[in-house]
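Internal ticket - ligand job 241, zinc ion:
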Amino acid sequence: MSLNNFHEQVKAHALEKPKEEVCGFIILNPDNTILVEKVKNENPNKKLSFSISPKTFLEKKLNSKMLGIYHSHPEGNENPSLHDLNISQELGMPFFIYSILTDNFFLHFPYSFEPDNLLKRPYIKGFYECTCLLKDYFIKELNINITRYNYNYWLPECDKESNRILENVMHSNFIYKQKNELKKHDVIVFKIKKEGRKHVGVYQGDDYFIHQCGNGISQKTLLDKRWQKKIKGVYRHPQLV
Ligand SMILES: [Zn+2]
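stdout (structure tokens):
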């Protein structure tokens, strides 16, 4: 099963029952493939809400690597409802929502979410990508939460739009710095291709940076001449100036 089409399976599940909220788990298998596991919606009012039995949830969470819980919105847009936000916070689990109405996805990370190790993550769209590593790095290493500047971690297909979001996150969170001032914990924005999607990493000092590429595991990489040439901007968090 392909790694990065799991959202299509969530969508297909939603369309099977377009008049009610469907739900399930997004599981990372030991071989780094994704399992979309349908779960029964136990809510008596399935049209407007969903519930998963606590037993089903706990059993699954204990016995597998759960990345998130998904559900559909048949009539509303993809934004999480207040109820969604509360449950996600309570469980410490990311919520992945698909709206039939708008045909869009939303990936929400609650404040209570505890990030995984930063290194050796496989690439998983939404959950493990360069922008997630950036968010998780600041939580784990510096205890700074930058999620409130970007609520939806499901990046748009369009590179231009995705770049605009990244730019917003940079400008509302960080201070622009000159390349030659680079110091530990600085965020580096790379331009890989002329019109393509931008890439982010975090500088670790001693010419190394940490990042998650779209075609490999998250890792520490030497900021050699080849990477230096791709640097588009360097940013520092105001608390680290
Ligand atoms: Zn909802």
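Auto-summary: The first strand starts at residue 23 and ends at 28. The CA atoms of residues 189 and 233 lie 5 Å apart.
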